[in-house]
Amino acid sequence: MRMLILFAVSLAVQFAASIAHAGDVAELEILGFTKDGGVFAFEEYGVQDGSGFPYANRYYIDTSTDSFLKGTPIRVRLDDENAKLDAARLQARQKGEAIVGQAELSANRGITAGFNPVTELSADPHRIVVNPRPIFSPVDQPLEFRLDEIGMINTEGCDSQGEINGFRLLHVEAQDGGATKLLHEDKSIPKSRGCPNGYRIGAVQTFSMDSLSAYAVLIAVRQYGFEGPDFRWIAVTGRL
Description:
The protein is α+β, with helices and mostly antiparallel strands. The protein has one domain (23-239). 15% of the residues lie in helices and 42% in strands. The chain has three helices and 13 strands. The strands form three sheets. Strands 1, 2, 3, 4 and 5 form a five-stranded antiparallel sheet that branches.
């Protein structure tokens, strides 16, 4: 009997420990580009840790200016733990149709040239080098991106959320002896990003017409969550 009790207690402790570290990692769905490569769109979705509420967020980004289209991002959260995730995603998709039609995005999804999910332990989370198109032997120069985390202080509302970081993203030129081009550098943390603790490069999506013309670097943002680390997604886009 004593052994059974000890075994039951051990299972309970292991179960409690697994719950304590069960953060909310948003799923990433790359939606695609408009037919001219001028807009890139992606979706993140999941179930919030703690509340159990399903959510779906859609982002539509002008690749020339790396800025959101008017009326976006689209954010849907169903404040009912019994609500279905598919219902949240459907609402976000329906709202997105007024921005860019799903059919156009699906027809111009582009190429996922690199992908490192947050569960990937062997990849460098702050550097990625890709052949931008699946052509062999390659006809394009490699695309290389590097990410640096930037410590932030006096971040409003984040005093109890641990170390708060922004980020810097660089494009390393393959043809110019490794010269770097600054794509993004945080001077402050936008409120929409919450209280980010860290970042990792998650994917590179490219788009081509006659030649390579646009890209999006997807970045996973780590935050302090209710039951463990939470991950959300942002993107830095550009034209080539």
